[in-house]
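Input record (one chain):
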Amino acid sequence: MNQIIECVPNFSEGRDLSIIKQITDVIESVKGIRLLNVDPGYATNRTVVTFVGEPELVIEAAFKAIQRASELIDMRYHKGEHPRFGATDVCPLVPVSDITMEETVDYAHLLAKRVGNELNIPVYCYESAAFEEKRRSLASCRAGEYEGLAEKMKTTGWQPDFGPATFNPQSGATAIGARNFLIAYNINLNTTSVRLANSIAFDVREAGRIKREGDPITGKIVTDEHGEPIRIPGTLKKVRAIGWFIKEYGITQISMNLTDITTTSVHQAFDEVCERARDRGIRVTGSELIGIIPLQAMLDAGKYFLKKQHRSVGIPDCEIIKIAVKSLGLDDLAPFDPDKRIIEYLLENNDKKLIDMSLTEFVHETASESPAPGGGSVAAYVGAMGASLGTMVANLSSHKRGWDSRWEEFSEWAEKGKVICEELLKLVDKDTEAFNQIMEAFKLPKETTEEIAIRKNAVQLATKNAIDIPFRVMQLSYDSMEVIEVMAETGNPNSVTDAGVGALCASTAVSGAYLNVLVNASSYEDKETIKQLLDKAATLDLEAKNRCEKIQLLVRKKLKIKL
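The corresponding structure, as predicted from the sequence alone:
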């Protein structure tokens, strides 16, 4: 897997779409870069851009974007609701795949040095890329904003890390950093009072509020023995928040940065703001995601709200995401399209897969003259259908009238079945890909001794893959029989035959995949290595048949059919 990093530059322009387009055009001009999201805000006069790629390419695209922004945006005339101190205000790098934070920091420093030296823009390095502790905080680096930048740069200890220590009136300064995935998230309130919005923000943000005597707004500030203000911490860790008024919508928002969603999730932040707003007679009307979000964060939110309703979480991801969107009110101000806002969906290969076909298309493709998809892919598909039937019975059981106290029990079984089903669906395409890899290996040249050796090794590696995939189908299909058996025994009695059909599908998938293991193992030369796997496969096949028969007997007994 290639190293992948994400870059999320924030440009101080959110109103002139032609300027934004010119900046994103230079990002996309770098071959290998994928532009994921462009999110302009009129009131904030700020655009958040998200793109990903291999590190060297990301650095090149980021440099070009910062350069173009410095040519197009004049900070002397910039006005907006959001704190800012430069044309490219911030430019964080985020490790995404196969790369450490330490390596990402090195790339951030490389970019910062180039921006400072070649563009003469003062650069402050923040978060993990900071050279000293006081600069880890973006708020500290940006304190005073553009208007106070000239004086700040003259202050001892606040000279930029890279670039000239002189004020650049057109471009201001840029903060370049490396950080974990940050979610920019705004919560909408049914009030126009910025004071009330800020009070809620101070309640929840980690930094809290300054302690005062008497009145919390006008009272005398309480200090410690060193004369420093004492703070009352907020309720949410790893959260920054302020309140502001958005003229565009005529409401105030709690503008939040969730800097570690493993500590404070989106749904936790939403619910906490709801509670604090309610204390002040304010209602949360919805929320707004700025930029993109990881899939798991959306699934966690959807499951959280489903569990609060005592509903099963073992349903398809798309349904869980719908619950998350509606529960968080993410479509309150504008439509929310998961395909454009969830990072994993944006990174998906758009080539049409077998599992994206309709059932009719899949059948016709299988029946065509092409040797793939074949029995291996069909076995995986049949296994997925078996697992889905077991999952269906669990979901139906979870909300059966009179069984309300058992919803969690059946939800857990449904979720287990769903995970197996999703894995088997992936193997539908992987089996065909494995077959194609073998065919490609056989096409390699074999003229020289070296070419013969390379070709032989490639064939054997592809063959091993073509054995491992159907064996995985066997194992998963057999695992699904646990869910199916429990549902046949304790699930909704009206669906017992569905469990029976599920068992037949699972057993067929095990036996079908076993045939593929055998046929591919016959041409694998390292017999000693493969013997143990073949023994396991034979045992799985026999156990699946026995378990299927057990489930069929159970189903017929429930139906009171005399044997």
